[in-house]
Structures are given as C-alpha cells and as structure tokens.
Amino acid sequence: MKTERIILRKKLDFFEDVNDYFQRLSGIDMADIPAKYGSSVEDAREKAVENLEIGMVYQCDNIETAGETEVVLECQEKFTGDMPGRILKDARQVVSFVASLCGYGELAEQTEDIMEQYFLDTWGSAYVEAAQGWLGRHVLAGLKEEGMSRTHLWSPGQHQFALSNQKALFRLLKPEDIGCRLTGNLMMVPVKSASGIMGIVPEDVKDLLLPCDFCPYGAACPASKRGCAEL
Ligand code: SF4
User: Fold this and answer.
1) What share of the chain has pLDDT > 90, as a percent?
2) CATH code where residue 177 lies
3) Which residue is closest in CA terms to ligand 1's atom 4?
4) Is residue 229 included in any domain, yes or no?
5) For residue 35, how far is its CA from the centre of ligand 1 (angstroms)?
6) Is residue 226 assigned to a domain?
C-alpha cells in the first residue's frame, strides 16, 4: 500500500448501515421504534444528519522493526507495550487512523431535551462505529486488489493495546486537521471519535490475533461477532 496520509470527509447519510450499530448500542430496531420514545429517536438522528459530518484521516507507514515491547516505524515513531508486536507480527506496513464526528460537542450542548440528548449521544457513537467499520472495509478492498489483507482494528485503550499509543497516533496523523484533538489525559475531542491501527499482512496469513479474546464483553458480546467495528 502506498505510504501516504489521506483525509476524507463524509456526510452522515453515507453510512447506510448505521441503524445496525444504533440497534446494537440502544436495543432499538428502527423499523419498530417503541411508542414510549415518541419522535425523539428520529429527531435526534435528523439533528445529527443535518449538522454533523464524519472526518477521517488515515496513513500507511512501513514497519522497521517489530519487537516484544515496541514496534518501530520507518519514520521512527513507535507503538509500545506488549500488544503492538503481537498484533503486527506478520505485517510489514501499518495503517493508523482517526475517525471523528465533527461538530458533535457543540450540537450536544445546544440540545436541551433529555431524551433527545440521550439518543444524540447514541447516534453519535453509532455513526463513529459505522465510519470505523467502513474504513476497515475500504482499506481491505484496496489491499485485496494488491493481493494483500489486513489484521483486525485495534484501538489504544482497548483490548490491552496501551492508551499511551494515542500520542504516537496523533503525532503521525495530525487529526487536528479534521477537528480532532487529544487532551492531556489522552482522551479525544470530540468524544465521538475512534482511533486505531491495522496491520497489512499477506492474504494467506490466517492466525490473526482476535480483539474478541481481549474484549470485556466476552461471551456476552452484543455484536455476536457481526457488525463489530473492530473486526
Ligand atoms: S465482536 Fe464482540 S467480543 Fe469481539 S471485539 Fe467486538 S464487541 Fe468485543
């Protein structure tokens, strides 16, 4: 894959599978919304679609060395801890990404109705997960044309991939260009943002490390290994 940094912006109605993510997060089937919620589910979604967009930045880098406690990229940036070397053991390149729901914080502050606030929050999470899932599939489709594949997606702070790796990710990607910044305690603003890495591996590599094996949901997984943005 070409080593370059790419920025994409997408309107929210681009993410056609967002209802699946929303249902997983809220338990609500958009084809059968319980009457007790009135119009708040749809109102919150309309508000999001009218006012927000997804910004994505991703970049492919060559891996110089992958050791037990750190993975060093050709640009000399490092991912550290036990997991990067395990995630990227068969990879020669790594794609880093940030996806962010631009304008979410301002819109959430303007929303006064409690029910609508709740559903705006849930739609926000659903759209970011949908964007992350789309990006994973988009990268995979490009790799398949090159006879390559990818690992699962791994996010700093989840599945034992150390949160401190956010710093390296943000230095690499400069997501400030899509309106996403990192706070002193390594949280992303807007809060409705996702970040992570995926390794690029030969198509015949099958024994990939699985996020589910490190996921707190375990057997109670609401995604049942379908529609999870990490996979
Ligand atoms: S599929 Fe379920 S268990 Fe696996 S990473 Fe996703 S949420 Fe966790």
Assistant:
1) 89
2) 3.40.109.40
3) 212
4) no
5) 30
6) no
